[in-house]
Amino acid sequence: RAVLAPVASALLTALFCATHAYAQEPQKGPVSGLPLPRYVSFKSDRVNVREGPSKEHPTLWIYERAALPVEITAEFETWRKIRDSEGAEGWVLHSLLSGRRTALVAPWKKEPQLLVAEDYKTPVVKLGPGVIGNLRGCDGKWCRIFGEGFNGYIEQDRLWGVYPNEIVE
After folding, report:
1. Which among 145, 100, 158 has a CA at the least distance from the CA of 118?
2. Interatomic CA distance for residues 92 and 54, integer angstroms
3. Element (H, E) at 147
4. Rounded CA gap, 36 and 131, in Å?
């Protein structure tokens, strides 16, 4: 036992360090070399989502909302597997996606969310669930978003399209 305890302790320490290092190191896409998962948005107001990564795979549905944020979870050649705010997944051509960051205002809530001024207190406007805003930046707690008729700050956890504590510059 006296010999096994230090060996077990060393193995557990090595496992913890490897797991910790893995958690710190983001996975890279095999095609793009960009982080996986990551958020992007639709370039077009008509995007076919397919069952698999080829035009031979059937179309599952069609999105008709340009700038909608989606999360890329996998890559295969010119195809990207995406997930939407409701958890639906499928494959789209990479040429239909943009690196421009957008976010949905609390699509899981029923009530409008308050957008505030730079002082984080003065109300600017209330935005309904599912409104798309362009991300101007996030500091890990607050994001500045803008769109047609609005520009201000919203708490980061009230947006879909940005990770918790993510810094967006």
Report:
1. 145
2. 9
3. strand 142-147
4. 25
